[in-house]
Request: fold
Amino acid sequence: MSWLDSRRPRYDAADKVTGKLLYPSDRTMDGALWVEVVRAAHPHALIRNIDTSRAEAAAGVVRVLTAKDVPGLNAFGIQVQDQPVLCHDRVRYQGDAVALVGAESRRAAREAARLVEIDYQVLEPLTDPERAMAADAPALHPGGNILHQGHFSKGDIEEGFGKSAVIVEDVYQVPMIDHAFLETEAGLSYYDGEVLVVESCGQYVFRDQTQIARSLGLPLDKVRVTAPFVGGAFGGKDEITVQIHLALMTYHTKRPARMVATRAESIVSHTKRHAARMYYKTGASRSGKLLAVQARFVSDTGAYASLGGPVLNLMMEHAAGPYLVPHFQVDAYAVYTNNGFAGAFRGFGCTQACLAMESQMERLARALRIDPLRFRQMNVLHQGDLAALGYPMKLEVGAEATIRSARRSKLWRNRRALRQPPASYGPSRRRYIRRGVGAASQMQGLGLGIGIPDYAEVEIELAPGPRATIKAGTTEIGQGAYHAYILEAAERLGLEPGQIRVVGADTGRTPDSGTTTASRTTYAVGNAILLAAGRLEQELGRRAARRLGWPAGAGKLRDGGFTGSGGWVALDELLAGQRVSARATFHVPVQDVEMGDGLPHLLYSYGTHVALVEVNTLTGEIRVVRLEAHLDGGQVISRTGFEGQSEGGIAQGIGYALFEEVRLDRGRFVDTNFDKYVLPTSLDVPVDMRTVPVMVRDSTGPFGAKGISETCMVGPTPAILNAIEDAIGVRFTRLPVRAEDVLQALREKEKKDEG
Amino acid sequence: MIDYLRLSQLDDVLEMLWAEGPGILMLAGGTDILVRPQPFAGARILLDISRVEQLRDIAVDPADDCLVIGAAATHEEVAWHPQVSRRAQLLAQACRLVGSAQIRNLGTLGGNLGNASPAADSVPALACLDAEVVLSGRNKQRRLPVLEFFTGPGSSVRQPDEVISSLRLPRQRGRQVSFFLKAGQRRGMCCSKASVAFRARSHSDGRLSGVRVALGAVAPTVVRVPEAEQVLEGRRIEPRLIDEAAAACSRAARPIDDIRSTAEYRKAVVGALLTDGLFRLGDKMKQRRRPRRRRPR
Reply:
């Protein structure tokens, strides 16, 4: 039987729901110190002096550390090391760390943290990225305030607009939002002999190991980092959070150390989704051919680089969506400000660009009076076409298949009837409750893209039982990746999933399988599993020749045994009490042409979302009634995991559309808990969610699989905005769309309609 | 530091309040207290009254036919109690919209009053049901109409030696119609940006009497809107009257801008909520008055 596309329950589900499985915040050790971070009192200030004497004298305090205690490079950052481990001369955002207190209890650490006296010279915070770009703005970093910019064009944009019968132009604004992972940043550090171990919450233990070793001035082999199970991240733990601070405290005190961030500290300190202003102008011919897309992005990258550059690159790469466009121009800037700091977040730049582009597509379709999905289909990219940036789409393109699937759905076919509120609403209510249906299509680059090393090495060990162990360096972060590895391995090795286990994310025990990001793990690690399985088969062939006298030659792992030149033999018999293991590395294939860090991709996943929303025109309240996701992730590995990703993505997309916004007041975080930072609840997510797998098998994927973990959250937001326009005839260009905004817009519309 | 004390007898609670009143912070469900930045500021004793059985009863008093709800009954207990559903559907409905399931399981009706938030969801419902608050102290007891209990956001007439012991809801004559609607930042687990409670007696000809309209979260305390009530008193629900009553609600609102919404929106939405509720109710009443057509056999 095949394990692919199965609804088998996740192997880690029972341990997670019963609390047996320990997360980083659960980990502790006898004698562990609590580490408290003293963070900046101002979003922008110079440090004149730091006095730790009172804190050091406080009860229970073991050590207070400042910048001078950082033995190696006092800076970190995935791409550019521009963020101090501990600030010594300047703070650039409210979450900047200035000192660390290690104490016998959490309370003692907290109280002592308040006694660290920092003398600041407060500076005016830079809060508007477009102002921060100006030549006369004070520079936050030596290279100025523009972290990264990109300019690409294809064809002749003016000619494109000249030929267009319809042109839509507008500015879209999206806010900074928080990942809202359930487990805040946490970890435990200690010495194991001479090796400094950090059990942490990161998304890439090998890079964390490098960053820790660099800041501590230690060789890599003296630092071990683990993070097998983490309580959610969505990109928010891709950058360093607690790791270096923990390591530093253990390094100086030789004692175990522990950190668990409060929610307020978490919100203030970690990266966010980039807020952005997006200027769009798009044109199409009378017959519905997309002719020109011009976009200008200004993204607020906050105080430090993190992945602000690559995020901007992906915004540019996805600026024209999954469409064929002859004339294209994009100009984009990622700008430093004192507004927190931004980085990776599920969707990674596509989220922002897609919101704008899909709004533009909807408006063009409406202006042309063409069925919006048909309009998308008329312009969709196919394999072999040139993407907006001018490189060819070499692999299978599933965009049209997802649009077709959406067009076939009842929700889309019956959308005219569905615009009528149900009869149960009563005759009066049906006059002021409005419903609308909207759609959005998107593509999402998969993997890290060209120019950034992107590989996955895994090891598979076969042992008597038979049992198999997969050693992979990625993190099980809630997404179900280890479960997918087990299904992929079961399918390939001819074993039952129950016979396979995963050892994950430990620089001391697992190979480097790359980052747990970019929708890549099921694809990249899955491919490495297939390669390693091939090597195992070669080894087993040799073993069969040696032990059983079979003619030399390869064979296949099948049905708990090995099929080769001499027939089938049970694995246990062939292993004869011994273990066999094999390692293999898969390199994620890339484009030939390199246009920037991670720009462009070779692989994409695709999706089309359709939303049915209801607007109460009296109160302005919006309710998402139904949401459908037609997703091309190639061959589905775990159907349960596929649907779980999709439904989680829908919930996050609803949050982005209707509720979420990290509010800052002159660089200070206004809401630092989930009482005021509004996330959708189960009542805000429709019961009626449907995820339709559109399996356009990828020729490079394991069994034809691709990742969908980001695609699934990119589309729901623009689909909801388009549905709102369908319902009430109002186009929103700014997120989130709150009841207050709806009511005001309806009033303005009424005035306009009357006048 | 604060002393924590849990008592199970009402008399002991009253004795304790008499002796230590001003230094006592009473805790029933804790859902408002424990989430404050400084939960116990200014208090010496945290007195847990959640286990006082006498404060948890829900029953009809045979003496005056009032429904008596113990102040330490949780929102969830009130929401699903058969007597409440039968006699005070409006209160059940409001209690079901409080916070989340977890908050409803812990938070109490008395606590919702004692916290004196103008956004408390049970209060507009209680106001429309003509409820009385019973305040008990050692050797004393007083009753007052629920809205007279509040003096402003977070403040009430409760003396330090008193506990809210129960709420008394008089029996309503005739067929009752009611609704409670709230506007929040989302659909679940949210504070009201504005709320509207409505109750009236509905007569067989469709006319309403004894109309009550109360608004939450749009003034320093929950307020009744006599002007809106008068518009509808003795009348059938019709669009013109709905508009007038809604306008009266918006006029009566004295809201503020805060982190959850704007004054402008709150002023508009109280009227909108009443309008929405009355249209729904009107349709429902019309449907009921229309004789049901029998299917031909």
User: Anything to note?
Assistant: The radius of gyration of chain B is 20 Å. Residues 3-169 of chain B form a domain with the Uridine Diphospho-n-acetylenolpyruvylglucosamine Reductase; domain 3 fold (CATH 3.30.465.10). DSSP finds ten helices and 14 strands in chain B.
